[in-house]
Structures are given as structure tokens and as C-alpha cells.
Design a protein that fits this description.
Keywords: DNA-binding, Transcription, Transcription regulation. The chain has about 220 residues and is mainly α. Helix content is about 75%, strand content about 5%. The protein has two domains: about 60 residues, Winged helix-like DNA-binding domain superfamily/Winged helix DNA-binding domain (Arc Repressor Mutant, subunit A); about 150 residues, Four Helix Bundle (Hemerythrin (Met), subunit A) (Up-down Bundle).
């Protein structure tokens, strides 16, 4: 049976387009987001543009300021610390529950995602696709926990971290390090090594946050 096509509203299409432009760095930090100009660019009225910007504000990508309107959210070292520390706490908790419930079928699904991830690493479009596969790999490992509310929190945190992660990948060799850590994490899950997997995951997340924070501070100091 063929899959039914997924229809998206104008608001969803505009939201996805603006999010992609922010994550790819085409819309810069602090850049004004003029609703009239965006409506013209996407050939829609201002209503779906306004709704899309509100959704992006909830994702931490857009800020609304009095007398200024919507702008691309500023990159913040303090926000990096908070987001990645929260990720470490929540994701280590769900991974522990997941390993306790993990079946061979669950591991096979995670292995398939990781193999696709390896193919992305060897492609010429690493940064564009890597972030999506990275989240999918972690999601496959966490799925056996059967904690949908916690997964919603993790999705929100990962969405807010995505800009920072993409910035790191553009300027460092972070993909290669993450690839090796993903392999080790997968093997620990295979062996049901709960404590080892939690330790590695916490280290994996916090070290990424520290590297991104240092990179951002370096860029901010250079631009002064």
C-alpha cells in the first residue's frame, strides 16, 4: 500500500523554511525578520508568517522585542551551558530506562540508523544532514524506555541546541569524534552496560557543549 502524502499548512511550510535558513546560518544572529518581506519571499499573507515566527520563538530560534519586532536569537555561551547540562541529565535518565527494556530488534533499528549516519559522514553534505541523523540515532536508543513526555522534552532541547551544533561542525572536526563515540555507545548498549553507557553519554554531551562554548567565545573575542 502506498503511503498517503503528508499535507502541510502554509504556516508549517514557512516555519520549516525560516528554521532551515537560521540553522544553516543564512539568517544571521540578531538579524531582523520583517514580516512583510518574509510574506513576499514565501508568497503568503502575513498571518502564516506571524504564526511561524511564534512557533520559532517557542523553539528558541526567534526573539520578539518591543519596538523591534522579531529577530534571530542571539547566540549565548550561558545558554549553551544550560541547554547541554539539561540534555545530559534528561538523556542519561532515559537511556538507563531504555537499556533495561532494550531488545535485539531495538538494537537493530539503532544499528541501521548508525549505518546511515556513517554514510552521511562519508558524503559531501555532512553538516546539512548530520544533525538529523544524530538525533535519530539517539532517539532509536531511547525509544525502548517508552517515555513519550520525556522524548518531547529531549526533542525541544535538541532543537534549541541544533544551531550551536551546526556551528561547531562547520569550524571543527566534531563529526569524526561523535562517530567514534556513537559506535562505543552502541556497543555498551549491546552489552547492557548501563553505567558505562550513561558515563559516556554524559561525557559526549557535556564535552560537545564545552567545545561549542569555547568556539563561540573565541569568535566573539575575534569580532571585537
Amino acid at each position: 500500500m502506498s503511503q498517503k502524502p503528508v499535507f502541510k499548512t502554509r504556516t508549517q511550510l514557512v516555519e520549516e523554511a525560516i528554521r532551515t535558513q537560521i540553522l544553516k546560518g543564512e539568517l544571521k544572529t540578531g538579524q531582523p525578520l520583517r514580516q512583510d518581506a518574509l510574506a513576499k519571499e514565501f508568497n503568503v499573507s502575513r498571518i502564516p508568517v506571524r504564526e511561524a515566527l511564534v512557533q520559532l520563538e517557542a523553539q528558541g530560534l526567534v526573539s520578539f522585542e518591543p519596538h523591534k519586532g522579531a529577530t534571530v536569537t542571539e547566540l549565548s555561551p550561558d545558554k549553551i551551558d544550560e541547554l547541554f547540562e539539561l540534555r545530559a541529565v534528561v538523556e542519561c535518565h532515559i537511556l538507563e530506562r531504555a537499556i533495561q527494556n532494550m531488545t535485539d530488534e531495538d538494537l537493530e533499528r539503532a544499528r541501521e540508523v548508525r549505518e546511515r549516519f556513517e554514510a552521511v559522514v562519508n558524503s559531501g553534505d555532512e553538516v546539512e544532514e548530520w544533525s538529523n541523523y544524530n538525533y535519530e540515532f539517539h532517539k532509536a536508543l531511547y525509544a525502548p524506555a517508552n517515555m513519550p513526555e520525556t522524548m518531547d522534552v529531549i526533542y525541544s532541547l535538541n532543537t534549541k541546541c541544533d544551531r550551536y551544533i551546526r556551528m561547531q561542525l562547520l569550524f571543527t572536526t566534531g563529526i569524526q569524534k561523535a562517530e567514534q563515540e556513537h559506535l562505543t555507545l552502541f556497543e555498551m548498549c549491546q552489552h547492557r552496560d548501563v553505567e558505562g553507557a550513561k558515563y559516556l553519554l554524559k561525557k559526549h554531551i557535556l564535552e560537545a557543549g564545552t567545545a561549542i562554548r569555547n568556539l563561540l567565545l573565541e569568535q566573539q573575542n575575534t569580532s571585537k
